[in-house]
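Private note to self, pasted from the team thread so I don't lose it. Backbone tokens:
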């Protein structure tokens, strides 16, 4: 008996609940760190600690989301009320000024009063047209024409101010069926967000899940406490649940007053949140018990994504509520007329006469909470009674016919293996398709200010397709490589090399992404057939850009440890792969075609640099301590040096302008000396860096050792002749530009700037003729072209180096600059001397400066 009394007593019911909820919270912190790793495409055993400030920020964000949803509900109701007024033949105006101006015009007697009233009315039309473009889309001219026609045919009473058409939530029963339906949909959207939120966005859909109720098999605790803690775990782990009652507090507070809002947050919000958490957790338990592992991960990932997508949709809708209501009204209004949607009325106690009953709403919410808790318990009990039989069900192998239906699968057995993986691993659909779609939508909202000038529907559609394809490749590549684990390296025993295998993977991913993006492009053509040729140009750009993105994704592969964990991807490699990632899409959406070209070129050169380093790493993936860097100068060396030269020159120019504006002095001279100093510093630092790796300066100025004996003057003469020819072509090109108004305006502005600052012409001449040729030829031909020729060879290296050289110049000068890049690379390659390229560059720049 004494021995039995010395044993510790099992924890009580509520102590068990508190203990398990604290475990859930700790598990949530670890999961957040894991999500951050996966979003950055890196894995490893190292985790990040969540600071107290970070926890507070997460809670504030949860409260913000629930508060925003309540605000969304109110704004959606008011927009629907305005739309109902328009359905009744009214024209909703932002202010009362329009109707007043129209009344004054129709009551005017004298010519002077009539003219003044017409001016006021026209200014009001312009103002209202701009507002209608913001809220309803279309062009300003279309809305102005509509309002002018309405002034001629409509009465003054048809133009009503917006505030009178949006009485708010207290007038739901008297403003038509659409506002009540919209309120119901927002309420259901918030509820579905809670149900499917779980413990947060789940990206690690391969991880093992160990529910708390496994304690039943190993600890002497009461089963009811374990199941209760499991049901409440989302509330402890996810602050969106803990701050969820705020939604009903704001909603009831806007109806009954702030005092009733505080009471509703406790008596209404808490039960609804508990019911939503219980139902969501029960669905997760049932899925874990009744489905095989591959399907299980996909379903749980799908649930988590749906909750995340609903949350994002509610937040994004605050930015475009008029457009959303206008777009969906054609479907929702007929449905609202024929089918009753009383859910919002039940949840708030809305009576037929338009009044609200706090008690009725509270009782209805209690009933709904009990139904969710009871349904969740029943579903989890059904799963528990069935046992774990579902997890033992083998997944059906993918049919050979399914993979054979893809045209390019038969060409390579690797393609068939990758397609089988995609069909077998159902979780890939969640992470490689749904997550990129959501992230693409968020990015488009983030860059919405940049896209405001792009009103063409084809451009928006094509840009969205490019963003989706970019994120698809960004996610699919690392996920495919990580999912193969140790099996990936079986390819080392194949007859084909591992490098060839990785190239084939990149080609396959690119083709899969392109097939999806092509559907978006076809839709853009069907939507705007007159702009089909522009969509075709974007598609051609995607063929170049997408291939480079796929190749960059390949280089993120890392080995798998004996425990099955992927080695973390270095931050520098991740950042390098992200260079130019969104530039192409931003250029399309923002109507910045030169930016789109820059994104394509930069992405291709970055892919070549990463592949050069990746090829050197491949033989040493399992013993990285033996790894050797590629023979310098590499593409990475060239890109760093070019970036330092360009950015350093920009910084020096900015500092020079600021210094001269404050202290006075010669701006042109200071700018010229500053750029020359940057060129000297970058060249010396680069030469020193390469010298530490065994590359002498003379090796950069010569193509190879065989070039040492070639005649120096022959190279210089060839360069001078080429520079003279290209300079004359540039002069003809400038004369052609003067014939186009847009380019002529740019040229005139450049001439005015030259004349406005003393000696600025001499400064540009010194930079272009003395500094730039030596520095740029050393960087772009001596380093970049040499490395590209070693990586690509032939015409690809010529075009790639010339294109990279071109994008660092003003867009209207790209054609002649591209020819200069080609000519200097050819002279360097053929004569074996960089001196000829410098001579061509100097002569060309001198002629261009002199002609201005």
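Design output:
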């Amino acid at each position: 008996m004494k021995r039995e009394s010395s044993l510790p007593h099992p924890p009580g019911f509520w102590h068990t609940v508190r203990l398990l909820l604290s475990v859930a919270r700790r598990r949530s912190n670890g999961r957040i760190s894991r999500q951050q790793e996966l979003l950055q495409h890196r894995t490893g055993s190292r985790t990040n600690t969540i600071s107290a400030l970070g926890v507070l920020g997460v809670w504030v964000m949860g409260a913000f989301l629930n508060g925003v949803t309540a605000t969304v509900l109110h704004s959606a109701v008011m927009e629907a009320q305005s739309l109902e007024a328009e359905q009744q033949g009214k024209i909703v105006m932002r202010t009362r000024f329009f109707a007043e101006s129209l009344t004054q015009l129709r009551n005017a007697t004298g010519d002077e009063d009539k003219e003044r009233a017409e001016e006021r009315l026209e200014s009001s039309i312009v103002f209202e047209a701009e507002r209608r473009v913001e809220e309803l889309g279309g062009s300003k001219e279309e809305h102005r024409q509509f309002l002018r026609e309405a002034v001629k045919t409509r009465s003054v009473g048809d133009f009503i101010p917006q505030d009178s058409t949006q009485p708010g939530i207290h007038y739901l029963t008297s403003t038509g069926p659409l506002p009540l339906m919209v309120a119901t949909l927002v309420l259901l959207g918030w509820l579905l967000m809670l149900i499917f939120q779980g413990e947060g966005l789940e990206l690690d859909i391969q991880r093992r899940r160990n529910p708390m109720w496994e304690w039943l098999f190993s600890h002497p605790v009461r089963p009811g406490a374990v199941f209760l803690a499991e049901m409440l775990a989302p509330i402890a782990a996810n602050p969106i649940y803990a701050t969820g009652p705020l939604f009903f507090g704001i909603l009831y507070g806007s109806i009954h007053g702030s005092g009733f809002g505080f009471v509703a947050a406790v008596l209404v919000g808490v039960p609804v949140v508990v019911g939503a958490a219980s139902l969501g957790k029960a669905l997760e338990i049932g899925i874990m018990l009744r489905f095989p592992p591959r399907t299980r991960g996909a379903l749980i990932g799908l649930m988590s994504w749906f909750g995340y997508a609903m949350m994002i949709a509610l937040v994004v809708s605050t930015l475009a509520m008029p457009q959303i209501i206008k777009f969906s009204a054609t479907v929702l209004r007929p449905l609202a007329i024929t089918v009753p949607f009383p859910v919002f009325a039940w949840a708030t106690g809305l009576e037929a006469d338009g009044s609200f009953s706090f008690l009725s709403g509270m009782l209805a919410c209690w009933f709904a909470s009990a139904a969710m808790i009871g349904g969740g318990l029943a579903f989890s009990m059904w799963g528990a009674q069935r046992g774990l039989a579902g997890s033992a069900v083998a997944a059906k192998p993918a049919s050979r016919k399914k993979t054979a239906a893809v045209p390019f699968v038969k060409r390579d057995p690797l393609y068939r293996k990758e397609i089988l993986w995609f069909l077998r691993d159902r979780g890939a659909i969640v992470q490689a398709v749904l997550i990129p779609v959501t992230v693409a939508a968020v990015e488009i909202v983030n860059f919405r200010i940049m896209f405001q000038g792009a009103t063409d529907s084809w451009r928006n559609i094509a840009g969205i397709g490019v963003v989706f394809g970019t994120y698809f490749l960004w996610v699919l590549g690392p996920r495919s490589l990580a999912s193969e684990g140790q099996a990936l390296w079986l390819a080392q025993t194949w007859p084909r090399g591992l490098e060839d295998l990785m190239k084939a993977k990149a080609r396959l991913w690119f083709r899969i992404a392109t097939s999806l993006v092509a559907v978006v492009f076809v839709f853009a053509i069907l939507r705007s057939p007159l702009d089909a040729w522009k969509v075709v140009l974007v598609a051609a750009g995607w063929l170049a850009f997408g291939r480079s993105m796929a190749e960059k994704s390949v280089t993120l592969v890392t080995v798998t440890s004996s425990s099955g964990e992927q080695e973390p991807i270095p931050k520098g490699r991740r950042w390098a792969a992200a260079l130019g990632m969104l530039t192409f899409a931003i250029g399309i959406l923002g109507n910045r075609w030169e930016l789109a070209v820059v994104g394509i070129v930069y992405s291709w050169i970055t892919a070549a640099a990463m592949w050069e380093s990746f090829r050197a790493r491949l033989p040493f993936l399992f013993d990285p301590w033996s790894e050797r860097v590629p023979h310098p100068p590499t593409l990475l060396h060239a890109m760093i040096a070019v970036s330092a030269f360009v950015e350093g020159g920009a910084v020096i120019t900015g500092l020079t302008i600021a210094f001269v504006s404050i202290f006075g002095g010669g701006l042109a001279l200071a700018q010229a000396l500053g750029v020359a100093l940057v060129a000297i510093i970058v060249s010396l630092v680069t030469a020193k860096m390469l010298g530490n790796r065994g590359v002498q300066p003379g090796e950069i100025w010569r193509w190879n050792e065989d070039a040492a004996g070639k005649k120096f003057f022959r190279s210089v003469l060839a360069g001078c002749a080429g520079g003279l020819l290209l300079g004359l072509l540039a002069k003809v090109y400038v004369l052609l530009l003067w014939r186009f108004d847009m380019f002529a305006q740019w040229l005139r502005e450049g001439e005015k700037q030259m004349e406005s600052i003393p000696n600025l012409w001499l400064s540009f001449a010194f930079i272009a003729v003395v500094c730039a040729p030596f520095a740029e030829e050393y960087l772009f031909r001596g380093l970049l072209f040499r490395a590209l020729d070693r990586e690509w060879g032939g015409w690809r290296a010529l075009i790639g180096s010339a294109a990279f050289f071109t994008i660092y110049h003003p867009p209207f000068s790209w054609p002649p600059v591209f020819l200069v890049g080609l000519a200097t690379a050819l002279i360097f390659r053929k004569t074996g001397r960089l001196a000829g390229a410098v001579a061509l560059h100097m002569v060309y720049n001198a002629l261009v400066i002199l002609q201005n």
